[in-house]
């Protein structure tokens, strides 16, 4: 698999796992993530049926011994010819919000919590994680403050996940038909003390 990473990187695609190993990290050898415009990459790969998960900034393939590597190679060759993969790794860091920890995850997880619509979640403390998959790394964990960058990221990206092959955990529709956010999506936050 590592050979495949390097081959396609040499063809102009940015392969996340190869980059990560060059940084000293360990990557799952069964995964191949092409970084770039997620929609363009997904459009290019869908006819080949090789994509597993996608996000706005890339597409992940999970390669097993049962997969036809020739089909995967044709899909990646098509991407290398038609997509602008590979220029977003620096932007990925900038585009993902960095929430600030204000209480410990343990404290937030065990605190009394409430569901609030996204429109009311800014400046609240997260009671549950917010995890886009891929990549499966939380953008907010319990105890972090949900700031305007997090809300902006959600507004810009949340529509991607239900329509595509990814998943966004932690954003839920109102569960109570009488809640003030009826029909809206929201987050679980630490309940504020009433004074």
> What is the top-level CATH class of the largest domain?
Alpha Beta
Rg value = 19 Å
Overall shape: elongated
CATH superfamily of the largest domain: Orn/Lys/Arg decarboxylase, C-terminal domain
Q: Label the CATH architecture of the largest domain.
A: Alpha-Beta Complex
CATH topology of the largest domain: Ornithine Decarboxylase, Chain A, domain 4
Residues in helix, % = 25-40%
Q: Cα distance, first to last residue?
A: 59 Å
Order of helices and strands, N to C? HEHEHEEHHHEEEEHHEEE
- Average residue pLDDT: 83
| Percentage beta strand | 15-25%
Q: Give the beta-strand count.
A: 11
Description:
This protein is an alpha+beta fold and 195 residues long. It has two domains: 2-93, Aspartate Aminotransferase, domain 1, CATH 3.90.1150; 96-190, Ornithine Decarboxylase, Chain A, domain 4 (Alpha-Beta Complex), CATH 3.90.100.10. It is 33% helix and 19% strand. The chain contains eight helices and eleven strands. The strands form four sheets. The chain has a four-stranded antiparallel β-sheet with strand order 1-2-4-3. Helix 3 packs across helix 4 (69-82). It is elongated.
Which key terms come to mind for this protein?
195 residues; alpha+beta; 4-stranded antiparallel sheet; 11 strands; 3-stranded antiparallel sheet; 2 domains; Ornithine Decarboxylase, Chain A, domain 4; Aspartate Aminotransferase, domain 1; elongated
């Amino acid at each position: 698999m590592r050979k495949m990473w390097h081959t396609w990187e040499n063809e102009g695609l940015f392969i996340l796992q190869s980059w990560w190993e060059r940084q000293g990290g360990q990557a799952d050898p069964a995964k191949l993530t092409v970084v770039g415009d997620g929609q363009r990459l997904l459009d290019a790969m869908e006819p080949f049926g090789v994509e597993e998960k996608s996000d706005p900034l890339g597409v992940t393939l999970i390669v097993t011994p049962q997969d036809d590597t020739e089909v995967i190679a044709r899909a990646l060759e098509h991407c290398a010819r038609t997509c602008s993969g590979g220029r977003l790794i620096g932007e990925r860091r900038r585009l993902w919000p960095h929430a600030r920890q204000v209480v410990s995850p343990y404290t937030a997880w065990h605190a009394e919590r409430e569901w609030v619509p996204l429109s009311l979640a800014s400046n609240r403390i997260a009671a549950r994680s917010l995890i886009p998959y891929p990549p499966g790394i939380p953008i907010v964990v319990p105890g972090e403050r949900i700031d305007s960058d997090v809300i902006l990221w959600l507004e810009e990206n949340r529509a991607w996940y239900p329509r595509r092959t990814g998943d966004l955990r932690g954003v839920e529709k109102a569960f109570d038909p009488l809640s003030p956010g009826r029909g809206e999506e929201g987050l679980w936050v630490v309940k504020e003390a009433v004074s």
